[in-house]
Amino acid sequence: MDEDISIINANTRKEKIKNFFINNKKYLIVIISLLLVIIFTFFLLEEIKDRKTKNLSDKYNNITINFNNSDKINIKNELVEIIKKKDSTYSPLALYFIIDNEIQASNQEINQYFDIIINETNLEKEIKNLIIYKKGLFNSEFQSENDLIKILNPIINSDSVWKSHALYLMAEYFFDKNQKQKAKEFYNQILDYKKSNEKILTDAHKRLSRDYSE
User: Fold this and answer.
1) N or C: which terminal CB in the chain sees fewer CB atoms within 10 Å?
2) What DSSP letter does each residue of 64-117 carry, written as one string?
3) How far is the C-alpha of 56 from the C-alpha of 94, rounded, in Å?
4) Structural contact between residues 169 and 136, judged by C-beta atoms closer than 8 angstroms
5) Tens digits of residue pLDDT in 9-31
6) Could you read off the pLDDT of 51-106 as tens digits, one per residue?
7) Is residue 204 classed as helix, strand or coil in its secondary structure?
8) Residue 112 pLDDT greater than 90, yes or no
9) Coil, helix or strand at residue 24
10) Distance (Å, rounded) from C-alpha 123 to C-alpha 141?
């Protein structure tokens, strides 16, 4: 008797499942089709992204390899095109190449390129902070203290691994301008920050011992 009941229950379950698929066939087809479209679109977008990255990589490498034999104006235009692609890898590299090789560009232009990368490019948090620091380093040669602090504030007011670098940059900036009290405040912030880079911490100690000892 129990065996008969089990068979009946099993057949009932099978019938219910069969009826479910029959009654909802259209909905299931739509759902499966949508899933397939989503999966296909995902892989298609990834393929397009990979191709774009490969094209940027080839373009950047071609520029750097042939740099000495090329017209700097055309080189600059090509590098700016890469910057404007807002690629997390090659846009920063293109900007660094312009700066390091002194390819003709005004300070205002350079800062505009920095802003494209910092504000409009999808970057990991600490990569973005590194680029902000590099922008501060670039501007430290000509910007006022207020403008430089404004650039570096996102790092100084954070818990970034680049915080001690930004503090040291401000300290050295004021020290070079003979504003030693302001410089001392930033050196002391480095000493107080528990996550300061070891070399930065050592350099701050040396500066305070050498130039502020009474």
Assistant:
1) C
2) HHTGGGS-HHHHHHHHHHHHHTT-TTHHHHHHHHHHHTT-S--HHHHHHHHHHH
3) 10
4) yes
5) 555 666 667 666 677 767 767 77
6) 666 777 888 888 888 887 567 778 899 999 999 999 999 999 999 999 999 888 89
7) helix
8) yes
9) coil
10) 26
| Amino acid sitting at position 128 | K
Structure tokens, 9: 């229950």
Task: Tell me the pLDDT tens digit for each residue of 118-176.
Answer: 999 999 999 999 999 999 999 999 999 999 999 999 999 999 999 999 999 999 999 99
Distances (CA, A) of 198 to 158, 203, 204: 18, 9, 10
CB atoms near residue 186 (< 10 Å): 20
> Residue written as tokens 């909905």?
27
**Residues across the chain:** 214
Quote the pLDDT of residue 28. Answer: 64
Q: How far apart are CA 7 and CA 35, in angstroms?
A: 36
Give the list of residues 6+ apart from residue 115 with CB closer than 8 angstroms, or none. none
